[in-house]
Amino acid sequence: MTWWSWILLWVALIALSLLLHVLLGVRLFRQAMATVKELGAAGEKLGHLGPFPEPDKPDNDGGKRLLPPGSAVFAPPEQMRHDYLAAKAARREARRKRRVERRAERGQPQSLHDIDFR
């Protein structure tokens, strides 16, 4: 091989490697811009939620207050147990009402435990 063929070979290899690096850089840039765009959309979507309301202030969601994350750590155990038991009773009552409604729709007999005698 002559000396100029080696130079031509090395020039071609360097040009191809530069082309590969440019293409990979463009692809990486496009992926980064798509990620930034998705993060912006997620920020817009979650940005309207705003901060948590203060526990002392009344709110307009029918008495359900959203407490800030971590508030259970500093709450008294009696209050947390009361909240847990109240939520548990509410879930049971909601399940009972759905069961009674479902059985009434299907024409099935009601259980004596499900009938509200109050």
Task: Provide tags for this entry.
single chain; 118 residues; mainly alpha; 2 domains
Give the topology, please.
Layout: H1 3-47, H2 71-74, H3 77-106
In words, what does this structure look like?
- The protein has 118 residues and is mainly α.
- It has two domains: 1-50; 54-118, no CATH class.
- The chain is 67% helix and 0% strand.
- It has helices at residues 3-47, 71-74, 77-106.
- It is elongated, with a radius of gyration of 33 Å.
- 0% of the residues are buried.
- The mean pLDDT is 84.
Average pLDDT metric: 84
Helical amount:
55-70%
Structural class: mainly alpha
Count of DSSP-assigned helices = 3
* Number of E strands: 0
Total individual domains:
2
Task: Write down the overall geometry.
Answer: elongated
Please give the radius of gyration in angstroms: 33 Å
Amount of beta strand: under 5%
Measure the end-to-end span.
104 Å
Largest sheet: none
Query: Could you spell the SSE succession in H and E letters?
Result: HHH
Q: Segments where pLDDT lies below 50 for 5+ residues?
A: none
